[in-house]
Amino acid sequence: QRQKEKWEEEEEEERRKLPPVYAEPKSKDFNFFLIMGTYPVIHIFWVEDDQILASSMSHHSFSAQRGRLNMQSSDNEEDVYGGAWCAETEEKDHWFQVDARREVQFTALITQGRESEKHEDFVSSYFVAFSNDSREWTVLHDGYAEWLFYGNVDKDTPVMTQFAWPIVARYIRILPQSWNGSLCMRLEVMACSLPNSYNSENEVNRPDDLDFKHHNYKEMRQLMKVVNEECPNITRIYNIGKSTKGLKMYAMEISDNPGEHETGEPEFRYSAGVHGNEVLGRELLLLLMQFLCKEYNGDNPRVRRLVDSVRIHLVPSLNPDAYELAYEMGSEMGNWALGHWTEEGYDIFQNFPDLSSILWGAEDRGWVPRVVPNHHIPLPENYLSSNGSVKTRAIISWMERTPFVLGANFQGGEKIVAYPFDMQRPTKTGGLDRRGDQRLHQMNEETWARIQRQNEGAMRETADEAMFRWLAMTYAHSHLTMTENHRGSCHADDVSHGQGIINRASWKPVVGSMNDFSYLHTNCFEISIFLGCDKFPHESELPQEWENNREALLAFIEQVHRGIKGVVRDLEGKPIANATVSVEGIKHDIKAASTGDYWRLLNPGEYKVTARAGGYSPQTRLCMVGYEVSATPCSFTLTKSNWDRINEIITLSKRPIRLISKSPRVTPPNKRRSRLQLMRLKNRREKMMRIKKLKEQMTSTPVTTTTPLAPTTTVMATESTTSSWFDAWFEEDSISTTPSSTGAELKESEPTPDYSFEYKIDDF
Ligand SMILES: *[C@@H]1O[C@H](CO)[C@@H](O)[C@H](O)[C@H]1NC(C)=O
Ligand SMILES: *[C@@H]1O[C@H](CO)[C@@H](O)[C@H](O)[C@H]1NC(C)=O
Ligand SMILES: *[C@@H]1O[C@H](CO)[C@@H](O)[C@H](O)[C@H]1NC(C)=O
Ligand SMILES: *[C@@H]1O[C@H](CO)[C@@H](O)[C@H](O)[C@H]1NC(C)=O
Ligand SMILES: *[C@@H]1O[C@H](CO)[C@@H](O)[C@H](O)[C@H]1NC(C)=O
């Protein structure tokens, strides 16, 4: 009851703050439906290529098919993906034709210039003609003369022209009369089916009785409230922060025990609207919460199981200010970019701290995982004091608060699922120059090519590449149309080769992405789902889009149960918070929640899993992951280690200790060493190597011989922390690796590439 009152107060407060809403219709949808009722529309973006025809084209990259509204160019002058239809200006008559394939009522046109960095090409005036057979054409007349329509005044902004009355015909032609720069244009034709053909192919049956419309901020709040009232036992509304304009980022939690983390129950998140103009994800999440609520109440066993076994968080709008901008303009009239950024000009998706560079910089120095962890990399010191987006910070704190296991963010403008890394690892300068390196010079071509390939992969693969591919596949293949590629992708060739998935770094790399951050700073595996070519689909397309996505939405949540899970406890059965869980062969660890429970997403297989916690001896277990979608229980009981006590003593005496089971300290390379010293060093090194080998042979789990490092890290901080000390350490270490692993060895001793790498040892 109190919660409800609070909600109402908030509602009232919000209402006062919102700008007054005018009764004037603002979105094109409104006008359109006023004229046409609710008959389905025809969208040229979705018609087949052979329904579009033009008088000529200036170059093979500017065919009529490139003339769809919001088409983006591929930036490659050589290929066929130009940013508009452009006519051959040598010709005399120009026209662009769309065949609706049957008689329809044409109601409006939306035109746009060419998408281009350099060129300012657009059509400024045109006639419109109609035909029923494509031979006899009637130019639209205003009673006195042929009706001249004014087109665009710049290349980006869409301009809508509504006809004074609907025109019944099968074909429509646009006849450009004047233009700026070259004759180039993109356009959308609005048309309705004739009333008597209402039950035609455009009709979508609506099996789910849900609210299929675009919801602005107020309507979204209202809808969430209704869902909450309908399903009070399994839902909770909270917000994760405020935008610059004071709009809240609302989250709907759906779980059998909303409001609390239950030990053993994984947390899942879907978020949408990082870019305010990519709106489909927002509506899908609003539909999903209605669906889960209705089906739960209707005892749908699949939904019951899902809600009872997962804590689901749905955030429909991470950038509410920008959405309002795009919503005001409506489905077609916003251009490709309006509402993409936040009020302050940030692209939230890429506004996260770049932890990838920190990880890679440390890897190049051989610091991972002993100095810099391979997971839960802390925020850079300067991040919190810098002027990042308020929203990004709110999102980060939300990610940190909740032990999410799996998540996805919805975007638009493409139809593909993208998984991390999102950032491309920079190639090292001078590192693998073949001629420059003696050893490489002796390599044969085949070996060289193999190493190159491995390096290429390593440039963008996470340690969990296989798992990420699986997760991305699950969504793409459960989606009804994501893998259809008969027309390539939205704007260029189908980069996914019919799979519907792509590694983001190999496609359109970005720095500081939400996905990379989530993977490196938290346990959560996050991917981006690009829902379709049209960033702002027409309201009448929402039922079809829901059908396309419904199964995928559910199937992806179910993947949170793939892998192993368990609780890390001490001998008394008390949970150990923040224990580290590592899987042999995967260089990315997971941290248990503060309640000691953990989840590790894994593909089917057999894994050697080790749990570690400060002050405890590590424990290793063999855990099997099967093909059924339910996590294999794999819990740990850790015993207190002697290192705990030793550590206490060391800390008390304040004496630095290092390299407990490692080789001795090496003189920094810049100091000259006598031959004798070098000889001694070499002997010692060989001795250490022999001992190490022996140890490895004796113990079945070599890992444990080096693990006492956990308590040591606290001591490191008391040591004067110059990097040369650590360089020396790793130099020594890399010598002792076996020479057979050429690739890895080279990496460790190479100079650091020239991307920003700021890391202070003190952080640990
Ligand atoms: C096409 O045919 C319909 C009748 O089926 C007619 O009403 C309409 O005017 C025709 N359109 C044109 C452009 O001739
Ligand atoms: C028209 O095109 C020319 C170059 O062709 C460009 O300099 C000019 O700015 C354009 N005009 C407008 C209004 O954009
Ligand atoms: C909520 O839970 C209570 C107690 O278990 C139950 O009586 C009530 O019917 C439930 N309400 C709904 C809408 O499921
Ligand atoms: C943050 O923004 C404020 C005001 O815009 C400015 O005065 C300040 O210098 C900025 N701080 C940083 C670290 O950029
Ligand atoms: C676990 O980690 C969290 C976040 O880093 C921290 O706030 C908490 O104090 C830690 N708990 C323990 C028992 O170390």
Automatic annotation (TrEMBL):
Segments of this protein annotated with the region Disordered: 735-755
Residue ranges annotated for the F5/8 type C domain, each copy included: 27-192
SUPFAM superfamilies: Carboxypeptidase regulatory domain-like, Galactose-binding domain-like, Zn-dependent exopeptidases
Main localization (coarse): secreted
A GO term from the CC aspect: extracellular space
Gene Ontology BP term (one): peptide metabolic process
SMART domains cross-referenced by the UniProt entry: FA58C, Zn_pept
Listed GO MF terms: DNA-binding transcription repressor activity, RNA polymerase II-specific; metallocarboxypeptidase activity; RNA polymerase II transcription regulatory region sequence-specific DNA binding; zinc ion binding
Domain of life: Eukaryota
Keywords assigned: Glycoprotein, Secreted, Signal
Gene3D superfamilies per record: Carboxypeptidase-like, regulatory domain, Galactose-binding domain-like, Zn peptidases
Domain Peptidase M14: 213-560
Subcellular location: Secreted
Family recorded in the similarity comment: Belongs to the neurexin family.
Classification via PANTHER family: ADIPOCYTE ENHANCER-BINDING PROTEIN 1, PROTEASE M14 CARBOXYPEPTIDASE
Protein name according to UniProt: F5/8 type C domain-containing protein
Source organism (scientific name): Denticeps clupeoides
Gene for this chain: AEBP1
